[in-house]
Amino acid sequence: MSDHDNTTLHDRVTAEVPPELDVTDVQYEGPDLVIYTNTPREFAKDGDILSTLARTLRKRVTIRPAPGTQSSPSEAEAKIHEIVPDDAGIQNLDFHSTVGEVLIEAKKPGLVIGSYGQTLREITQAIGWNAEVIRTPPIESSTVENVRNFLTQERDERREFLERVGEQIHGEPTKDVDWVRVTTLGCCREVGRASFLIHTPNTKILVDCGDKPGAEGEVPYLHVPEAAPLNSIDAVVLTHAHLDHSALLPLLFKYGYDGPIYTTEPTRDLMGLLTLDYLSVASKEGRTPPYSSEQVRKAIKRTIPVKYGDVTDIAPDIKLTMHNAGHILGSAVSHFHVGNGFYNIVFSGDIHYEPTRLFNGAVNDFPRAEAMIMESTYGRRNDYQTDTDESEQRVHEIINETYEQDGTTVIPAFAVGRSQELMLVLEEAMREGDIPTMPIYLDGMIREATAIHTAYPEYLRDGLRQRILHEDENPFLADQFQQVDGGQEMREEIASDDPSIILSTSGMVTGGPIMSWLELLGPDADNTLLFVGYQAEGTLGRRIESGRTEVSLNGRGNADRLTLACRIESVSGFSGHADRAGLEEFVGEMNPRPETILCVHGDDQATDQLSSALYQKYNVRTYQPKNLETFRFP
Amino acid sequence: MSDHDNTTLHDRVTAEVPPELDVTDVQYEGPDLVIYTNTPREFAKDGDILSTLARTLRKRVTIRPAPGTQSSPSEAEAKIHEIVPDDAGIQNLDFHSTVGEVLIEAKKPGLVIGSYGQTLREITQAIGWNAEVIRTPPIESSTVENVRNFLTQERDERREFLERVGEQIHGEPTKDVDWVRVTTLGCCREVGRASFLIHTPNTKILVDCGDKPGAEGEVPYLHVPEAAPLNSIDAVVLTHAHLDHSALLPLLFKYGYDGPIYTTEPTRDLMGLLTLDYLSVASKEGRTPPYSSEQVRKAIKRTIPVKYGDVTDIAPDIKLTMHNAGHILGSAVSHFHVGNGFYNIVFSGDIHYEPTRLFNGAVNDFPRAEAMIMESTYGRRNDYQTDTDESEQRVHEIINETYEQDGTTVIPAFAVGRSQELMLVLEEAMREGDIPTMPIYLDGMIREATAIHTAYPEYLRDGLRQRILHEDENPFLADQFQQVDGGQEMREEIASDDPSIILSTSGMVTGGPIMSWLELLGPDADNTLLFVGYQAEGTLGRRIESGRTEVSLNGRGNADRLTLACRIESVSGFSGHADRAGLEEFVGEMNPRPETILCVHGDDQATDQLSSALYQKYNVRTYQPKNLETFRFP
């Protein structure tokens, strides 16, 4: 940023601030405008000044005390304990003098914040440090802890990075924005390898970068000239953490990308968890992982978190706003405002439109949205799911019947999302006596993923959030949940033991511990294999679901080939995806409705039938893109 | 090319050649396979060997005598004069010892060639030199002469260039061809700045690179990542010489492109003529030309001519075949065969489907053609042209009426195409007494463009070709045609003289001498301004045609603004473009019919209405692309 720009910005900020408040410096850090002041205590008095400034300057604004204006850490620590009620359960205080900030980790962050931020402001007034609060997860999560420690340790490098990004974002766009284009790099007429490029005359944004379940090697078309070289990309946006959207994000850093990733905090942590697991599965299966954990750390270090509803500048000519998508923890419908009122594009990401046990329904309300790139997983004419009550009853029946013949029910599930939904269903069913109480074993990353859910309860549905924050009501802490942490030996014991329920990854039977469970329990007619989620074309899950009982386990265990004798069942209604009705309603109830919709993230039939239906029903211009096409808007 | 490849190729060629023929070396020059032999006289005996080899090897094949096997030039010259009848009118012999070739320039090349190439073979047998024939244009053309001299002078550099291109073309494609894409860099929902990119995993081909008449500055989107950097483009194909397809080709060489341009010989020469004129118009109007004549020469030097019907390798995975398009001299419907049987794309370029006085109708017969990018100039529902007889009668009437009131008829026309058509119409009308004989003045590049037509009579319609080759029947040599070569003074004289007819460029009244004619003759109600060609949106021609009489001449002459009092008439039916019926028939009579058609090169309504009509009538998938979009096939 030139001195000139800086002066202008300083002047603009000073003009907006009451005269008794002193502005010593103004700087960009990533999308945020940071205001340094000698009078942090004065700033803290006025609860509205921050939001007023943000509105006027149309930026995310942070106030920081200028160096030398704060109390000493020991004084400050005493003061904080004085102000915050003991009930808050403060676990840790972390003073960062370079940014004048103290991180307060507490079990009940609400009590540190106070109503309307009253307590936080009181702290800042008293000590001159900016107070930020983070929650101690009710279930210990090594992922959340590792990410937090890592980011603390990398704080200085990260600050430099944020300043670099800040300059880039807040520069003037050099060219008029008279077009915006979307190029499909994957995920068209298929489920998997989600990856899209938004380009304007000034900017390139990559949305998602996933793998394709069941089709290793079919990766997004990143080498085409629109995307290559990768360092020509200005920013990456991640809609949610599932591997078909996130798996190849770290790869970008291997091939020269060094810019930001914008996503929600839980998505960042889940992405770390799932990509590390992706690497370990690959190496267990004897494949060469496409990148190393080093690049996963890089991806985490380069992530700039955004909260639902916050308008964030991510380029000189693009503003991003993420909204709840109802699909998994942290999943986001991502709204891009291009140019100064020029055009608006929504990426639905994966959505669930009705509320579920875990999440509120997907947001479909935007100031403007002319085009939408929309998922179509269940876009076929007959893709209606049974309603939740019915689905749950059916699950009860299947488990009861299996239990009665002394069998075990194995449920393949994504570690993130469907597992937690099922855990809530099963916990309630046992509590209410709908199924007998028996052990529910969690295999793979499910327990850890659950812990991450409890670290971000503000992303969950209201009632569930309350229950999680009260230890004795936290459904995820129920006794019957047991982690499979003893490897193959423990699995063999469980398999030969009394009936139980097993939730195991991967959700589409493409690898991971579910392969061992197939081998151990599949040949026995007393057991049941129960599918509760979408099985993509090309996956073993899909093949089994459509009647194949001769399966290949791909060199796992002793038996390469296996004949399944167990009962095979599918129950819909637990999907993290909207069904056909939900997809139609998502569009039908949008206001204003987009002019153009691209139907992606669904097989040939699903995208074809959904795009026809939306066109006929709502008279929207719809397309069923292929990979490698470019659409220009408007 | 590696030694290994060379050996293999040498072996393959030797295997196909009868044992008495000696093959000393085999090399690629551009798309051609050049076979060197110590026994050129033996090769020449067998009239079929060349075509047999071409068919077997699927290459364009040239035979060259190995150095030291030929007669001396003086011996050879005597021999040639002995063999060729005097009637042939040999003008010049040019011996190129590096390639063992003698260029014979003759007034009647047919007599040098002999029936089925008999005489040519006889020459080669006698002298050991490869004989090539070129025609002395019946009307002297400085363009044709300059281009020939320039290419002769650059022969050595050109040979190196051809070897470089040859290696590139005949290398193995490194990636499987599992997609081919077309990106629209211009000419969508508009007429002008034609430019399209064909890409495969291995190759980028640019088709056309024109300007937009009436909208200077609206150039093709060459800076987008699909096309940039320009040296990532492997080859350029030019469908015809009009500036809206060719004007910015030389610019490519300014910005780093150094590869081949594939087009017909007449298009090469006309492109040279028109782009040099484009530069001179720009500098006369005080604009900075985007490139210099140096780059025009470069473009000519890099042109590899193709003949109608010849299958030419232009990349490891793309073969080009050009066919008559009926639009202007050398214009080509361009067929791209992608991969080994993978896909076929036709670019119609500008077409006229019915035969005209000048040309046969556009070719629409291909072995396979799955997709077509098609012009839509007259694609609107009501864009039917009156038939030629009626149109000609109407022109006679208008000229007669103007003549009777002592007025002059001014016809703005493209130098290339419409002018020659009109010349034929007017010459016949005067010969048959339909209009009085009076001077027909040709202003701008029209005379020179006409001369180029006579240099390539094989590109004209049969009857016309015969007439041109007999001096006393050559319609373009009629006495009434007079070149305006005395500048503004001569124009003032003509304007104040007896009634006449004036054919003047530019065809859409966007600059050039027509501006002077408007100024001199426009204010007088006795004169007529007669439009016979398409006037694109944004041009002065379109504004006048739609009734505007107050026009600005843009600083030309004394009067900046001018009120037209002359009669304004438009007669359709002379267009070089198919009308709506012709466009429909072009598609309807294609066999096989393409699955997908992109309607381009027409305004919003024309492309919309044509694409709807083709879809409804022929059940073809049609699109009305925007600029900057990418379509993937299949």
Structure in a nutshell:
Chains A, B: Its cofactor is Zn(2+). Two copies of one chain form a homodimer. Chain A is α/β, with parallel strands linked by helices and 634 residues long.
Q: Care to describe what's here?
A:
Chains A, B: Keywords: DNA-binding, Endonuclease, Exonuclease, Hydrolase, Metal-binding, Nuclease, RNA-binding, Transcription, Transcription regulation, Transcription termination, Zinc. Chains A, B: Residues 96-163 form the K Homology domain. Chains A, B: Homodimer. Interacts with RNA polymerase (RNAP), interacts with the Spt4-Spt5 complex. The structure is a homodimer of 634-residue chains. With 634 residues, the first copy, chain A, is α/β, with parallel strands linked by helices. Chain A has three domains: 3-156, K homology (KH) domain (GMP Synthetase, Chain A, domain 3, 2-Layer Sandwich), CATH 3.30.300; 172-381 and 577-633, Ribonuclease Z/Hydroxyacylglutathione hydrolase-like (Metallo-beta-lactamase, Chain A, 4-Layer Sandwich), CATH 3.60.15; 388-570, 3-Layer(aba) Sandwich (Rossmann fold). Chain A has 21 helices and 28 strands. In chain A, the strands form six sheets. In chain A, strands 12-11-10-9-8-7-28 form a seven-stranded mixed sheet. In chain A, α4 packs antiparallel against α6 (118-127). Chain A binds chain B through residues 179, 181, 183, 199, 204, 224-228, 232, 626-632, and chain B through 179, 181, 183, 199, 204, 224-228, 232, 626-632.
